[in-house]
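Posting here for the record, re: 5-O-phosphono-beta-D-ribofuranosylamine.
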Amino acid sequence: MSRLRVGVLISGRGSNLRALIAASTDAGYPAEVVSVVSDRVKAPGLAFAQSAGICSTVIPHPGRRSFAVRAEALLHEQRVELVCLAGFMRVLDGAFVEAWRDRMVNIHPSLLPAFPGLNAQRQALAAGVRFSGCTVHFVRPEVDAGPIIAQAVVPVLPNDDEASLAARILSVEHRLYPLALRLIAEGRVRVVAGKVEIDRWRAPRLAVLNPSEPPRNSPASGWSQTPVGV
Ligand code: GRF
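Prediction output follows.
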């Protein structure tokens, strides 16, 4: 089986990169991370990729165009077929984005189109939403925009701060990104009229309410909630 060759662009911690690498260590997984590019020398994700034996490159970012030219050459040389942005903190050059149209995806820690840009968790808390989550989408020139491939939802809890909400979202990011990449690598994802269609789609059948409904036969208010872990 030939696996989809994936390049991952990072700027920092790289926990999503780790999740993608972990998924691809399974020989039956249809994609493999063959190249990691960071715009920051000290990105912890870079050290992890090196230790995992993956070709890892620092491309400094003095400007969008010069970064794009070097990244394009490298990705071409390494025969990368799909680019995954995973905590890459730069806005990419428009021509680069167009060159990778429908072959470049991003993960963002909100239910897009709500809360694009920086500090998505802070935006969610400020808006008082009861649910947040994460989104994997194809990249377009506008920041955190583009056809949505997959989303995961988590509740926002009464005592949440940015850190606790970010951790809860991150734990589902690590499941969602490998799933989305699998669907793409299996050739099941295509963009039709600006929206994503997925072959053999299984949707969840449950609606989730927050606050929860009281269990049957209990007082209408004041019931205790099962804690949701991060
Ligand atoms: C994640 O929350 C991701 O959604 C966002 O940046 C963060 C990167 O985290 N785009 P990590 O570097 O993957 O740990």
